[in-house]
Write a structure and sequence with these properties.
The chain is of the alpha/beta class. Helix content is 21%, strand content 31%. The strands form 11 sheets. Strands 21-20-19-22-23-29-28-27-25 form a 9-stranded mixed β-sheet. A 5-stranded mixed β-sheet has the order 7-6-3-8-10, sandwiched between helices. A 4-stranded antiparallel β-sheet has the order 15-14-17-18, with no helix packed on it. The protein starts with a strand and ends with a helix.
Length: 682
Amino acid sequence: MGIQSWMSLWFGLTLPAIMLMYMFKRKYVDTTVPSHLLWERVLKNLEANRPWQKLQNRLLLWLQLLAAALMVFALMQPFMQVSGGSAHIVIVADTSGSMSAQMQPEGSGEAEASSRMEQLKERLKAYIRDHGRRSEITLLSTGSSPVTHVSHESDRGAIDRAIEALHPYYGTASYRETLSLAAALTREEPDAEVVVFTDSHWRQDSVPIAFEVPVSVETIPGAAKHNVSIEQFGVSPKGATGSSYEGVAVVSSNAEGASSVEVNLYGDSQLLASRVVELEPKKKATASFSNLPFAEVYRLELASEDGYAADNESFAFGTGRSSARVLLLTSGNLFLEKALQLSGAEVTRIAVNGSAGGQGDQASGRQGEGGQDEGGQGAENKNDRTEPDIPPVPDGEFDLLVMDGSIPEGFTQGKWAELARQTPLWTIGGDGPKVGSEGGRPVLARHPLTSYLTMSGVYFGKLIDQQPAWGEPVIRLGEQPLVYAGVAEGRPRLSFQFLLQDSDLPLSPEFPVLVNNALDWMTSGSGTGLGRFMAGAQADIPVAADTVSAKWVPKSGLALADGPALAEVQLSESGISSVQTVPEVPGLYAFEQRNEAGETTSYWLAVTADPYEADWSTEQGPAVSQTGSDAESGGEDQDSGASAAEQRRAASQAGSLMPWLAALALAVIAAEWGVYQRGRSI
């Protein structure tokens, strides 16, 4: 129960005025006379005026007092909080990234701090319980596009479940689009209203959205904590050699006073450096990191807690090794070496001299690009050795080891054997029983190695008649396997069952394509950084031709901490689409692809939040207007307990009854005046 016009209580003075009229009313005594001739004398002698007489129990008095009290009560414009003020209530919930910020409720301690999203859910449930018990509810939220959670729903259980399912959207929120949808849903419904729940951090529009129904704004109260943001972060190679790296970060704070923050830099989960950055009020500071080792993924982290966690981490990817490093063991194969270099590989060649099968004198030496012997001994002394001179394993890490032809036994022992186990291995020819080629039509299995190939018209001589235990044939010549591909100890393996010298494949225009396919397939197992994308954006991701399934896997950041539902992988007519919608929660993700053989390929991708949601310098509500009315929505709460739309509707109805109440009062006064003048009452 509520009163809109307490000033109208002054009209209650009419009640004692009516009582005074009865107290001063003339009193006439009935007298029996014998003749009408005595009327004049009797009237003069017996007429008496008796003021201040005692009030008597008269029905007319009570009726007049009741009528006056009802009129005064109506002038005070009373209202009651009843359920179902509108037949249809459209609720717009602001679920932008700023709603994940921690708020300190007014008049409460630090331990009671909660996120704006949690407070939003409580306010929504309370509002529907108090004002929408008999109304149909439509719940909209601001995602990448307007999201309709329930429409014209009366089941309170379904509405509560929809409210609990609300979560922040960290991309560019559809503020204007959601308001436009709410206006369209209520355009043909005169008995409807729109209520917007927001934190007053609404992206402003120059042109307001016009509504034909009452619209109000409910603000989530509470004081926001300060926010420290990582605005920029990047890592790049230092110098021409790229042996070390340097990083730069830009940090800002919205705190009113000076503050400091600890900034930690990680490379592949290892702490590389730590800095304490001093922050001036409303200014930016720069943190530099030098002499960093190479890492696939760099992570910058703010160690302090603030009110907004979405911008406390940033990721960068190492770019110094964009080309694959290939270690080539060969007795001399110019076509293979040049094809690897054309594919973008950095080739380190080790010259291996020896006969097939490991018989006879063997020698080896390390050679550079020019082919000069780097073994330290002249060719004239090689025939004097009883055992091959095995060079040491070159320094550094390699993405692919290629063994072309017969390899001396020393390359299968010690550190060379360890390198072969830890590195993808591609063997061409080698030892083993040989058979002649039977000819036939090339048969190519579906595999990344065979993309864009036909292998038609290529001659093959002798073939190794030995199947490796780890692979399956992906290229056949009739019934004879030519190429095996598979995985051994978790790393790709590739075997050509022939020597390139026993085939005219190096002369084929498809040979560079085959080498490029082999290089891409064997070196793409490790994560490759695709860069940063805003939450909900579109990203182009390389998808292998044999991919049968893919998924987003959170690796670090808010994505891993919150444990949100993973984004769905987009499909196309041919399978997994190369254009994917990135997840909606900031953090580091891996887009994992799996082929029919169970082999996986991953691509790193960093997801960031919309920077607008981290800037709390201004507070503004949505720009809305009502057609045919001067009312505009504001950002203030309604302390009376009723919504602004209900108050406007109640005021409009009270105003329309005022003329009728005034006319009724005049009619009662006119009728009763005659009774008063006659001096009789009932």
